[in-house]
Amino acid sequence: MSERKSFAASIETSLDDIHDSWGWFTALGVTFIILGGICVVGEVTATLAAVLAFGWLLLVGGVVALIQAFYTRTWKGFFLQVLNALLRGFTGYLLIRYPLSGEMSLTLLLASFFIVGGSFRAIAAGTLRFPYWGWSMFSGIVSLGLGVMLLNQLPVSSLWFIGLAIGIDFIFDGASLVALGAALRHVPSGRSLASA
Questions:
Q1: Total domain count for the chain?
Q2: 132: alpha, beta or left, given left = phi > 0 and alpha = psi -120 to 50?
């Protein structure tokens, strides 16, 4: 019981620490919502930008990993580390050099993930029948349907899907930050959100 009280006190202290920053959370949330809206409206451009950014991150990460591998060349894992760095850098280069093929590859990977993950989630929920298992099964069926839709619409879906997914994520993340900012604003300093 004392652990539960100390955990609650820790949360209340943390909330007191960020209480006066409610405006920053709200502003960041509104910014994310606006960026998400831009991504949803311009999903093709957002997809291309995301693939190029991912490619540059992989390329720079590969170069940094290669430099670090040579600094620790006496280590037994040197060759694996060099191979990892080269593979990372080469993948980044390919994404930058051929962004449309990169879009298609990433969309194909995501579609496969949705199909496999959704199938397993739906089957597990139907088999185990834990409390509220219907929601989990529904989630799995939606993921499965999304994956099949993406596969059926390739290569066209590769042009818009990643940008749309990023935009939707920004919008939901922004909405949660706005909600947190509003909650912090309406809770007087020194009180927990749970008791308000």
A1: 1
A2: left
Measure Cα distances from 53 to 6, 60, 106 in Å: 43, 11, 13
- DSSP letters spanning 150-178: HHHTTTHHHHHHHHHHHHHHHHHHHHHHH
Q: What is the mean pLDDT of residues 55-76?
A: 90
State the pLDDT confidence band at 196, using cuts at 50, 70 and 90.
very low
As a whole number of angstroms, the distance between CA 121 and CA 110 comes to 16
CA distance 22 to 184: 6
In a domain, 78, yes or no: yes
Which pLDDT score is estimated for 76?
80
Rounded distance, CA 186 to CA 156, Å? Answer: 46
- Can you give the residue range of the structural domain that contains 101? 24-186
Instruction: Report pLDDT digits (tens) over 115-172.
Output: 999 999 899 888 888 778 888 899 889 989 999 999 999 889 899 999 998 899 899 8
**What tokens does 49 get?**
């930008």
Residue 134 belongs to a domain:
yes
Residue 2 domain-assigned (yes or no)? no
> Is residue 7 in a domain?
no
Angle separating helix axes 99-128 and 78-97, nearest 10 degrees: 110
